[in-house]
Amino acid sequence: MQRNSKNKLVPLRCPWVDVNNSLYVEYHDKEWGRPVKKDDRLLFEMLILEGAQAGLSWVTVLKKRKNYKKAFDDFDPKKVARYTSAKIEKLLLNEGLIRNRLKMNAAVINAKAYLEIQKEFGSFSKYLWGFTQGKVIKKRPRNLKDFNARDELSDRISKDLKTRGFKFVGSTIIYAYLQAVGVIDEHAKGCYRS
């Protein structure tokens, strides 16, 4: 157990979690590291959000997540793939989003590439989990400095996605994505979720 700023005892969590920030706590406790194997929509959502996060803090994305969900048609890749330059311009005016033209354009490009993977593999989930033969990779870092920013798996997936035309899918972004969707379960040693 640990204490938050209100001196209340709370479960011990990964060291990156700000226990005084309810968005971080809820995300860590209910989503981060849980395997997403049958929900291609959620896999697409997290891919878009991880790309939007590039260069920013994750809490910035969490604060804007509901706005993204609404603005990006509940992360339906078929709809996002049809976004026009006029739609991108409209999104860039939305203060509830991270207003970066490259990231907005990448979301549309990635939606098209995502649909191609679904067509080829039957689902994005089959493609993604095929890299680990469906197995979750468990890592148990002890301290914040022990968490990885990338590894050989994220390097391979990043390279493959790039050859398929994806943008904003560097190895560091993909590593965070793999953690988010539970391909990599990297809850710290001692975290109540480990």
- In the CATH hierarchy, what is the architecture at level 2? Orthogonal Bundle
- What shape does the CA trace take? globular
Q: What would CATH call the homologous superfamily?
A: Hypothetical protein, domain 2
Uncertain stretches: none
Q: Major beta sheet, specifics?
A: 2 strands, antiparallel
CATH class, named Mainly Alpha
Which fold name fills CATH's third level, the topology? Endonuclease III, domain 1
Distance between the termini: 14 Å
Element-by-element helix/strand order = EEHHHHHHHEHHE
Overall residue-averaged pLDDT value: 95
Lateral strand order in the biggest sheet: 1-2
Helix-residue proportion = 40-55%
The total of helices stands at 9
Report the sheet-strand fraction: under 5%
Q: Please compute the radius of gyration using only Cα atoms.
A: 17 Å
Number of strands: 4
Total tally of structural domains: 1
**Class computed from helices, strands and strand pairing:** mainly alpha
Polypeptide structure, described:
The protein has 194 residues and is mostly helical. Helices cover 52% and strands 4% of the residues. The strands form 2 sheets. It has a two-stranded antiparallel sheet. The protein has a two-stranded parallel sheet with strand order 3-4. A hairpin with a 5-residue loop joins strand 1 (2-3) and strand 2 (9-10). The longest helix is centred in the middle third of the chain and has 21 residues, at 101-121.
